[in-house]
Design brief:
286 residues; alpha+beta; Pseudouridine synthase; nine-stranded mixed sheet; two-stranded antiparallel ribbon; globular
Length: 286
């Protein structure tokens, strides 16, 4: 249902539509349904009057790591939503102002996504790749679909992981509360694979390099929570209060590196440093 409504109401993000559905402002056959309801023939969709959201406050310019005629790489700051929040200025707003005011194209999907193929959680910082042309947009989309894009993250997790490296392959599904959950491989869910390598061990924490081979929602956070080593600073999946390092005011998860093929088929890799506030936390743990 949310996918169908996105096509009919392109000015609203899919996340905003999901909120309207879940609140009952959008109903089917006079009844409240979930956002992932499968529409049937002759279903009648009733939409309450949608109030125009208040004007969003602009944010500071986002650091650009590299840019050419086909793509740009940015360093997304923590606290910035990629899309979907009607009240906050999001990355997609910035991209539409930066790119789509200069680029005229008939490609609706490219226009609606403003060149975005992948996302980072609001609380995650780091490198993101954005297409500047429809040709590269669809090229990159196929690479993500075929899982050939290289994605490396850095994370601090609770507890000392004894093995130097490993692989997590819990399948993932959406729970009754709407959050993602990890399940044993023999249960129902979508395949998700996360590889990790321990970079440094501390008394109560482990500093990891993480490679995701699939791109599920909240994959790293859900996998390591299921592994009993949740990501430090995670307030969404860690229900009980666990002591975090003094001074940490964010999720300790950072997208460090991305690799992909350009339009000519040449492999490209880009890498950025850990943010200073996270480096300072590691120094305090030594």
């Amino acid at each position: 249902m949310d996918k169908f409504l996105k096509e009919q109401l392109p000015d609203l993000s899919r996340s905003a539509l999901q909120k309207l559905i879940n609140s009952g402002s959008i109903r089917v056959n006079q009844g409240k349904v979930p956002a992932h309801y499968f529409l049937k023939n002759n279903d009648l969709i009733k939409i309450d009057e949608i109030k125009k959201p208040p004007k969003k406050k602009k944010i500071v310019e986002i650091p650009i790591i590299f840019e050419n005629e086909d793509y740009l790489l940015i360093n997304k700051p923590t606290g910035l939503a990629v899309e979907g929040d009607p009240k906050e200025y999001c990355l997609i707003d910035w991209l539409k102002e930066k790119l789509l005011t200069k680029i005229k194209t008939a490609d609706e999907e490219f226009n609606n996504r403003a060149g975005l193929i992948h996302r980072l959680d609001k609380d995650v910082s780091g490198i993101m790749l954005v297409a500047k042309t429809p040709d590269f947009f669809h090229c990159l989309k196929n690479q993500f679909k075929e899982r050939t894009v290289k994605k490396i993250y850095l994370a601090l997790v609770y507890g000392a992981i004894e093995r130097d490296q490993g692989k997590l392959d819990f399948v993932m599904a959406r729970g009754n509360d709407g959050k993602m959950v990890a399940r044993p491989e023999n249960q129902e869910g979508k395949k998700a694979v996360t590889e990790f390598r321990v970079l440094q061990r501390f008394r109560n924490y482990s500093y990891l390099e993480i490679k995701i081979l699939t791109g599920r929602t909240h994959q790293i956070r859900v996998h390591f929570y299921a592994f009993n080593h949740p990501v430090v600073g995670d307030k969404l999946y860690v229900q009980k209060r666990i002591k975090a390092p003094a001074g940490l005011k964010r999720l300790f998860l950072h997208s460090q590196q991305i690799g992909f093929n350009d339009l000519a088929g040449n492999w490209q890799e880009y890498k950025i440093d850990l943010p200073k506030e996270l480096k300072d936390i590691l120094k305090k743990l030594k």
